[in-house]
Amino acid sequence: MMPSITDVARGDGWELRLGNCLRDEWPECDHVFTDTPYCDHVHAHHRTSKVGHGRTNVTLDFPPFDPFDRAVTAIKIAQVVSRWVLLFSDHESVSQWIEAVEFASLRKMRVGTWHKPGSTPQLTGDRPGQATEAVVIAHAQQRSRWNGGGLPAFWSYPTRDGCTRVHQTQKPLPLLERMVEQFTDPGELIIDPFAGSATSGVAAIRCGRRWVGWERDPDMFAVAKRRLEATHEQPQLPFEPRAKAQQGRLPL
Fold first, then answer.
1. CB of 137 within 8 A of CB of 94?
2. 91: domain CATH number?
3. Is residue 245 part of a domain?
4. CA-wise closest residue to 148 among 172, 173, 179
5. pLDDT at 76 over 90
6. Which DSSP helix (H) or strand (E) runs through 191?
7. Strand partners for 35
8. Residue 128 is part of which domain span?
9. In 3-state terms, what secondary structure has residue 239?
């Protein structure tokens, strides 16, 4: 049995914990952004691309989530969060996430879409490929507010964003930066209980937010720690929700 926390790395405005987040105490926070493990079906059929080797099946090296895992995670989130909750989800698990967040007395606000240009095609050719992932968007019980104006919950960013991928399900940094700017305010605390390579933490630091994350794999913890230590806040232009809406890009 893995102990709750075996190591902690800290920097200016961030903290990364090594261990099982569900066995640890979470700090009160403004937001939760996280990409939990997928369901059994997705783990069994996961495909990715490897440079120079075409498209191939790659076994995900972490266990899948089931309805109990989602329920426990949602309850933990509801106990500490005061504003937004963003949960990346395979489409098969969306209904279970909605049930879990509502059971935990969070408000289900929207199911957003991350569109992945250049996504892996359906190799069997017998059905359409999957070019999107869902984002279940929830909120604590108080009144909601966000910085996106009238924009839809739709983000179009390729999986490969020019950065070296160090995790099997790593999200593109520009996508997380965009979400941080749209849903959070400077100085607020975001937590990510399933941090992986800590892309959400890198985005938070670059955008002037605070961040706490958990990663249970020691090797990935070391990778995430190095990424966080190398990250610094970036000067940000005023966020304009209508600017570059089609491109979905942050001004740099």
1. no
2. 3.40.50.150
3. no
4. 179
5. yes
6. strand 189-192
7. 88
8. 8-229
9. coil
Q: How many folded domains does the chain comprise?
A: 1
Cβ contacts of residue 80 below 8 Å, gap of 6+? Answer: 26, 27, 28, 29, 32, 191
Q: Which pairing describes strands 55-57 and 47-49: parallel, antiparallel, or unpaired?
A: antiparallel
Task: Return mean pLDDT, the chain.
Answer: 85
In a domain, 239, yes or no: no
Amino acid occupying residue 62: F
pLDDT bin (cut points 50, 70, 90) of residue 167 is: low
Measure the CA–CA gap between 83 and 30, rounded to whole angstroms. Answer: 5
For residue 3, being part of any structural domain is answered with no
Residue 175's closest CA among 139, 135, 211, 140?
Answer: 135
In this predicted model, which residue has the larger pLDDT, 188 or 166? 188
251 found inside a domain = no
pLDDT at residue 144 tops 60: yes
Which H or E run contains 44?
A: helix 40-45
